[in-house]
Write a structure and sequence with these properties.
The chain is built from 19 helices and eleven strands. By secondary structure, it is α/β, with parallel strands linked by helices. It is globular.
Length: about 500
């Protein structure tokens, strides 16, 4: 037998080719009709799911969901209809998915999203622009640049500032630490870190942040070659804000030990408590010690558009770089985040030129290829979601959502303080409330078991979703209130669930 016959691929029939071409997004009349029909069916399924579910979760077990998905066999290459796949998806995912929009979802930093952003997503996914170069994005480039300038103005950065949309706070924080590291090396050593790597002294580089700052700082420093031990934790006060006294003491101590403190990270909205570090004082300390000052405002960035609360971020304008997550307090779908720097010359630390993509000649011609500012190459047009939001809802309308959430946090804190069976350990500054159920004199170990049980029981029941955290190795419950449709009645009902499951635990134990 001829060996070429053995390796010759089996071609599709003419009818199969026509069927598969129907699924290619194109300007052919049949393809457009298929697109419209398909999107209509998807929207119908999603809308029905919203109507049918009255809880944030169904309580479906992990074992059941895993079993359903593992049952699917991709080796069976039989093509299925869209109707079949949507029905299948209901069983695998849709019927049991977590509903972040539900007013009793008050667990993590997952915001409900705005309908204009979903319209924007249709354009983003369908047209599939890649934002790395002008010849892949055209007008999209200028929409993103306009929103970057808008955010730089909110931050109070100089006209010479710059920024880029990113995938999330972890990536943005990495960029801040990368710039801090390379700025210090370029300023103090006769090497180019992009070409030559790190100096021997890099093992002594230290970054200071509060002891309740985001874990991404340690994760990123390990990726940047400095190691997690480069993070030096600074003590916090009773409201979990960075202590300036301890910050200054730690810097002096590090220098005495022969270490090299190169940057301070201030947090504007810690994940657990929503606490905002004293940014102005940190900026002054950084300046005195010739250190980079980065602000992680992934959570608190939304305060910038609130006339009622923007003063809480006073001092952010003095930072060298900032992280903002629009997919938290700007009510955008994941992913939508940004990294901002006060001086566009800092871009040189991450800029690369590829002849096929963003040649030096193109830069000299003034072509705005955004890839030079990003550690990503291919990048979605996520800025369009924020554009639709601002054009349809406006800044004041957008800010009202977070302002309502903050009022709900204040209500919750006051409500808990007026009860003897709860302990609240901070004054909420944004919309996170950390507390625990303490109905009896049982000690911390007993409270840990009790509150751990409560969180799991509520999740498994599905009527509400809350989360927990640890403070000094003790388990506390946490509300993250982002949904402006959450009412005080919703909050009281969730607290009743906590009491109910707490009493169940007490009876069992």
């Amino acid at each position: 037998m001829d060996t070429t016959e053995q390796i010759k691929p089996k071609l599709l029939s003419e009818n199969q080719v026509k069927a598969y071409n129907l699924h290619l997004f194109s300007n052919e009349e049949k393809a457009i009709a298929n697109y419209k029909k398909s999107m209509k069916k998807a929207v119908k399924a999603i809308a029905k799911n919203l109507q049918d579910r009255d809880t944030p979760f169904t309580g479906a077990s992990m074992e059941l969901l895993k079993k359903r998905v593992n049952h699917i066999d991709f080796k069976n290459d039989e093509a299925k209809s869209l109707e079949y796949v949507i029905e299948e998806l209901k069983d695998l995912y849709l019927n049991d998915c977590i509903h972040f929009h539900h007013p009793k979802y008050i667990a993590h930093l997952n915001c409900p999203i705005l309908t204009p952003t979903l319209v924007a997503e249709a354009f983003i996914s369908s047209l599939n622009s890649s934002m790395d170069t002008w010849d892949q994005s055209a007008g999209g480039t200028f929409i993103e640049l306009k929103l970057i300038d808008w955010t730089l103005d909110l931050l109070g950065y100089p006209k010479n500032g710059d920024g880029i949309f990113t995938s999330g706070g972890t990536q943005s924080n990495m960029m801040g630490l990368l710039l801090a590291r390379d700025h210090y090396i370029k300023t103090n050593y006769n090497i180019d870190p992009k070409m030559d790597g790190l100096p021997q002294e890099a093992s002594k580089f230290k970054i200071l942040c509060s002891e309740v700052s985001h874990f991404s700082l340690k994760k990123n420093l390990s990726l940047l070659g400095l190691g997690q031990n480069a993070v030096v934790a600074v003590a916090v006060d009773k409201n979990f804000k960075m202590s300036i006294t301890d910050l200054k003491a730690k810097i002096s101590q590090l220098k005495e030990q022969g270490n090299i403190p190169i940057a301070i990270v201030g947090t504007a909205g810690t994940t657990d408590f929503g606490s905002i570090d004293p940014l102005t004082d940190i900026a002054q300390t950084a300046k005195e010690n010739k250190m980079w000052f980065h602000v992680d405002a992934a959570y608190g960035g939304g305060l910038l558009i609130s006339e009622l609360h923007k003063e809480k971020l006073k001092g952010i304008e003095l930072s060298d770089s900032t992280t903002i997550d629009y997919h938290k307090t700007f009510y955008q779908p994941v992913s939508s985040s940004g990294f901002f720097m006060r001086d566009k010359s800092f871009v040189d630390y991450i800029k690369y030129h590829a002849d096929y993509l963003n040649s030096k000649e193109q830069e000299e011609e003034g072509i705005p290829n955004m890839v030079k500012k990003s550690i990503q190459t291919t990048r979605r047009f996520d800025a369009l979601k924020l554009w639709f939001t601002l054009r349809i809802i406006g800044v004041r309308g957008l800010s009202s959502y977070l302002e309502t959430a903050i009022e709900n946090a204040k209500f919750t804190a006051e409500f808990l303080r007026n009860r003897k069976d709860f302990e609240i350990i901070h004054n909420p500054e944004i919309s996170a409330v950390v507390f625990r159920y303490t109905p009896y004199t049982g000690g911390d170990a007993s409270y840990c078991n009790l509150n751990s049980y409560i969180r799991k029981a509520i999740f498994n029941e599905g009527k509400a979703i809350i989360t927990s955290t640890k403070v000094n190795d003790e388990v506390f419950l946490k509300f993250t209130l982002l949904n402006p449709l959450t009412t005080t009645q919703d909050i009281e009902e969730v607290l009743e669930l906590i009491i109910q499951h707490g009493q169940e635990y007490s009876l069992k134990n």
